[in-house]
Amino acid sequence: LTVEEHMNLSARIKTGQNPDPAEISSLLADLGLDSKRNDICQKLSGGQKRKLCVALALLGRSQVVLLDDPTSGMDPLARRQLWDVLKKYKQDRVILLTTHNMDEADYLADRIGLMDHGSMVATGSPLFLKNKFGMGYTLTIFLHPKSPPFAPEKLKQLVARAVGHFEVLSQSPVELKLRLPLNRSPEFIQLLASLETQTDLFVKSFSISQTTLNEVFVRALVRAPFSKPQNTFPNSTEKDRYQNSINGIFDTDASIRDDSDMPLHARKQRGPPQLLLQSRCRIFSQQVYGLLVKRV
């Protein structure tokens, strides 16, 4: 099927009515697929196929949309374009999105849930999480290459007078990186004005940034009151069978079992465990069945 035929078919399945041509054209234009309208989907690139999947999910004015890592494998430009599309189409919808990209979560999400080993560690708005688990603001100061050796110390004295306590993250003759406390943000205005106007500080440029979600995620996991979940399987044989059934690649067989308690010579006679690959026909039938269950 072509891209447009895919969207027409998906719209009929989801709504039971004839598709809206204006909605299809708008989605294709926003996702940059308008020129691929009559192309066979099999010939699309990986990123274009992901865009098409997002378009199919949004089609039919769906009130609830589930997206699993939609920008995985995309180049930065295509990823940002898809972010803007999701930002535009999230009005009057509930979009549940899973991602490993913290920048993506920070840009798109109104509420974020941090998960570790299947358990929810923390949830809230990006600002709440940064304030709860954040470690302050990061002030990076770049010095002139010909600045004197005492310039970093002079800058640290200025920061100490302005905000009190701070932490030195890194220091070199041309760069100074400091961690400033969250509760002293009102004093930042005077500090930044001094950095900008005082020429005897030898400041070339500077920047200030809040804690990133990557740092928040790591800090939240460290503070989580639980450790990795214990193995709930009675033995490794059951775990192997469960994992094989989840993967859908290998067939469970009597030859797949825990033989750690077998004598060494018996294991050598038996040979390595045999994993039976499912036929392509069976895999295809499972995929079709899963698609029907998901859609119906």
Which keywords apply here?
296 residues, alpha+beta, four-stranded antiparallel sheet, two-stranded parallel sheet, 45% helix
Arithmetic mean pLDDT: 77
User: Major β-sheet, in short?
Assistant: 4 strands, antiparallel
Number of distinct helices: 12
Rg calculated over all Cα atoms? 28 Å
Alpha-beta content class: alpha+beta
> Which outline best applies?
elongated
* Spatial strand order of the main sheet: 6-7-5-8
Unreliable stretches (pLDDT < 50, length at least 5) are 226-235, 241-278
Query: What distance separates the N and C termini?
Result: 21 Å
Helix content: 40-55%
Total number of strands: 10
State the order of secondary-structure elements, H for helix, E for strand.
HHHEHEHEEHEHEEHEHHEHEH
Descriptive overview:
The structure is a single chain. By secondary structure, this protein is of the alpha+beta class. Helix 6 (126-133) crosses helix 9. Strands 6-7-5-8 form a four-stranded antiparallel β-sheet, with helices on one face. It has helices spanning 3-15, 21-30, 46-58, 76-89, 102-108, 126-133, 151-163, 188-197, 213-223, 236-247, 264-270, 280-295; strands at 64-68, 94-98, 112-116, 119-124, 137-143, 167-172, 175-180, 203-210, 250-251, 276-277. Helix 4 links the parallel strand 1 and strand 2.
